[in-house]
């Protein structure tokens, strides 16, 4: 069947020491005054100095905003506060340097300079109508994909749930992906963000919006990340592993941006919002239960993912192959100490399942891509299975 495909990506600079191109990229955007949005750990690790060096060398006017509040779960008011700094300071380029939360704040703060109102007014799809100030995203983790996507995730404090802003207007102008900037990532960040990247490739592969381009990228990203994450996690200074993880994450981000995540991410939002667990962890504890729920229609694709992970599927029935695939995924997560069930992270309140299911079902933007039409009751069963999934 013929399919029309639209594939979107920012201008990308990838590779060792690619951060040195930042001044050149600012000039390409006609930037005269830039705001660098970052966090304390980026500054203390010396990464900020690496970003600023080319900017200083080219005598570009700049200022730095170090977000002092916890940005594990960026809040809507944080993006609004930075947006005011951008507007009041007359900055014409916003540079985000950090993990996904920092980058999401930077992207949204830019958008709010040309889209009036509060961040929560833009939750959902394509509500941000106008492109903000030009943005350059520089990730310091291999995983979130925020540097090349049109999404930003925030904690909706009114409802205590994570919500997404999704719009073409949020797409960064430039992404600079330098593997050397990820070397200082702690092991728990390496594993959680690395698994997030793996899922950005794997989940769209079993969704409705997949296409031949994203399929090819997804399988290669799964292969690269499966092979490299454990090495980067156990030996943070292994530059080749960091390089491969940054490459796999970049490819997975392209898949995310053009095919989109679905069931796992939808059901993770209520868990992440209520229990404030790290995003990657909220995904890992639901993965096998969610993939099992769609295995009737996506079993062969789950087997292809397992093959990309190095599993031998020869001679197996689809049902047998699905079991091998889910076991392989669980083993992969365990190998980097990622939890695979809700009970492992101390979430044991089974009376909350109904509340989560109602909230998860509301994530229509994501569930619209799911391979299976799910009722609230179906979703409740997935959460229930996730309490003790494959322990």
Automatic annotation (TrEMBL):
Entries under InterPro entries matching the protein:
ADH_Fe/GldA (IPR001670), ADH_Fe_C (IPR056798), Alcohol_dehydrogenase_Fe (IPR039697)
Where the record annotates domain Alcohol dehydrogenase iron-type/glycerol dehydrogenase GldA, the positions are: 11-179
- Membrane-spanning ranges: none
Q: Which UniProt keywords apply?
A: Oxidoreductase
Q: Does the keyword Oxidoreductase apply?
A: yes
Q: Which GO terms describe its molecular function?
A: alcohol dehydrogenase (NAD+) activity; metal ion binding
Q: Which SUPFAM superfamilies match?
A: Dehydroquinate synthase-like
* Domain Fe-containing alcohol dehydrogenase-like C-terminal span(s) in chain numbering: 191-386
Segment forming the signal sequence: none
Concerning its family, UniProt says: Belongs to the iron-containing alcohol dehydrogenase family.
Please state what the protein is called.
Answer: Iron-containing alcohol dehydrogenase
Natural source organism: Aminobacterium colombiense (strain DSM 12261 / ALA-1)
